[in-house]
Amino acid sequence: MKIIIANNSDAPLYQQIKDQLKDAIFKGDLVEGDALPSIRAFANDLKVSVLTIRRVYEDMEQEGFIVSQVGIGTFVSTGNLELLRDSKRRLVEEQMQQLIKTAKSLAITKDELNAMMAILYEEE
């Protein structure tokens, strides 16, 4: 698992880390039962404060993405995977609504828009 922190990002460090961990769970790079590094080890690896990682782990545990077992470790829990998928769908839907509004204002038909979408989707 590779976490990349951008110092020039508007997002706080803990949010960048949390978002990347959630993405790794969503993509299946981290699966249910996978152990996460200890707070101290993770903080050392990323060169951030242990308080930052503690906040990430606490938030993710409250959201149901990980579980912590005292004396054993912290593990991935996919109990909240459908909620994550739904939030990602909602984000795409919001962007698509803006796209449709722009297409309509430019007199682009639904068929033309679908054709463009199909081509662009296949290129990625």
Q: Describe it for me?
A:
- This protein is mainly alpha-helical and 124 residues long.
- The chain has two domains: 68 residues, Winged helix-like DNA-binding domain superfamily/Winged helix DNA-binding domain (Arc Repressor Mutant, subunit A, Orthogonal Bundle); 43 residues.
- It has five helices and three strands.
- Strands 1-3-2 form a three-stranded antiparallel beta sheet.
- The model has no long low-confidence stretch (mean pLDDT 90).
Query: What is the CATH top level name of the largest domain?
Result: Mainly Alpha
What is the tally of helical segments? 5
Span from first to last CA?
A: 23 Å
Spatial order of the strands forming the largest sheet: 1-3-2
**CATH superfamily label of the largest domain:** Winged helix-like DNA-binding domain superfamily/Winged helix DNA-binding domain
Rounded Rg: 19 Å
Structural class call reads mainly alpha
Number of strand elements: 3
Low-confidence stretches: none
Main sheet attributes: strand count, strand direction, barrel closure: 3 strands, antiparallel
Domain module tally: 2
Approximately how much beta-strand content do the residues carry?
5-15%
Question: In one word, what is the shape?
Answer: elongated
Mean pLDDT: 90
Helix content: 55-70%
Question: SSE string, helix = H, strand = E?
Answer: HEHHEEHH
Report the CATH topology name of the largest domain: Arc Repressor Mutant, subunit A
Q: What is the architecture of the largest domain at the second tier of CATH?
A: Orthogonal Bundle
